[in-house]
Structures are given as C-alpha cells and as structure tokens.
Amino acid sequence: MGVEWAESADRHSIAHQDAIYAITHAEGSEEQDDGVTAFVGHPHGKTDRYLEVLVRFTGTRGIRVFHVMDLSDNYRHLLNEGTEDE
C-alpha cells in the first residue's frame, strides 16, 4: 500500500507510524460522503489514548493521509458502534 502524507497531517505532530498503527488496528471507521474514511484507533498497543485519522483512497492500493490528531468528539461515536444492548 502506498501512503502519501499531506502537510496538514503533521499539524498535530503525531508520528506517521502512530497514524499507520491506528489505521491498521482501528476500533472504528466510517466512510463519508466525500470519499473520505475516518479511522479511530490507538497509536500503539500499550496505551488508552486514541487517534482520529482521515484518509482519502488514491487508486487501488494507495491512501493520502491528511488529518491526524488525538480523538475529538467528532469521531468518538465510532468507538461506541455496536456496543448498545439489543
């Protein structure tokens, strides 16, 4: 998979490898109407901290990462999907 990094992805000074880990180990994700996918996951396996990572898929095997930051209320709902009592 090819990964491109927009300048905006570095705005919050989060390491690229932490963003990749959050994507590949996401606990929640959401495809949006504008072709963007939001991922919520830990930056590594030994933390309770979550990141939100927004990407746009480019071609068949590539992504462009343009937003990475600590989890905000905008995407917190992705952690709660599927946890409601039936």
Structure description:
This protein has 86 residues and is α+β, with helices and mostly antiparallel strands. It has a single domain (2-80), classed as Nuclear Transport Factor 2, Chain: A (Roll), CATH 3.10.450. The chain contains two helices and five strands; from the N terminus they run βαββββα. It has helices at 16-24, 77-80; strands at 2-5, 28-31, 36-41, 51-58, 62-70. The chain has a five-stranded mixed β-sheet with strand order 1-5-4-3-2. Strand 4 (51-58) and strand 5 (62-70) form a beta hairpin. The longest helix is centred in the first third of the chain and has 9 residues, at 16-24. The chain is globular. The protein starts with a strand and ends in a 6-residue tail after the last helix.
Give the overall silhouette. Answer: globular
Oligomer: single chain
Quickly give the CATH architecture: Roll
Instruction: Summarize the amount of helix as a percent range.
Output: 10-25%
Percentage of β-strand residues: 35-45%
H/E series: EHEEEEH
Secondary-structure class? alpha+beta
Give the full name of the CATH homologous superfamily. Ribonuclease toxin, BrnT, of type II toxin-antitoxin system
CATH fold node name = Nuclear Transport Factor 2, Chain: A
According to DSSP, the number of beta strands is 5
Overall tally of domains: 1
Name of the CATH first level: Alpha Beta
Low-confidence segments, ≥5 residues, pLDDT <50? none
